[in-house]
Amino acid sequence: MTKSELIATLAERHAQLSIRDMDLAVRTVLDAMALALAQGQRIEIRGFGSFSLSNRQPRLGRNPRSGELVQVPAKRVPHFKPGKELREKVDQAPDDPPAGPKQAVLFDRKVGGY
Question: Whole-model pTM?
């Protein structure tokens, strides 16, 4: 699912809000998450998962074109760990997804699942 698909799906589910309002809401949430990670904070969304930072050590890599050894510097990368509810829901999903366009299914607390 892309960001624009998420916005469209949310706009369909909440007809009282415009697509422009949904776009602003989604961008605001994603920007806040990116800023928190950039500041070294951990993000936890109950029932979905958590985002944290992992530190990668410097290492030697290879240039894929020339095969030449290059030094890859140390860096911090985001890491996602799915929550229990998400892992169970994904595990229960059918092995063969239906053909055709992908459908977005959003979490709905009233129903108690995805």
Answer: 0.70
